[in-house]
Amino acid sequence: MQTRETMHRVRRDVKQHRVTFYRQQLFRHWQCLEQQRDQYSDKAIADIECALGKLILRVDSLCDDERGHKVVAKLLCKIDCVTRLSSWSKSTRIH
Question: Are 79 and 48 in contact (CB under 8 A)?
Fold first, then answer.
């Protein structure tokens, strides 16, 4: 039987793993964006960097509940549409 304290610790650990994962992904997108800087206008880069910075700062509080966690996941998908990081990460097919 799990105690209330154990469940609280598990939730805290899950949240911390999510926060760490999301921060790592956001930084990877930021690095990817830096490599593509010449493909976008200065304003587009500034806007995306501002959004990434705000999200990185708020990811901890956003992951406090399930709804916030889903918001971060959706935003990562939208950011990926710009950076196309996930397409770079896919393994190539070996014949």
Answer: yes
| CB atoms closer than 10 angstroms to residue 33 | 20
Phi, psi of 90 (to 5 degrees): -65, 140
Domain boundaries, the chain: 4-81
pTM for this structure?
0.77
pLDDT tens per residue, range 13-67: 888 999 999 999 999 999 998 998 999 899 988 998 998 999 999 999 988 877 8
Supply 55's token pair: 């999200």
Q: Quote the radius of gyration of the chain (alpha carbons, Å).
A: 17
Cβ contact 74:80 at 8 Å = no
Do 32 and 83 form a contact (C-beta atoms < 8 A)? Answer: yes
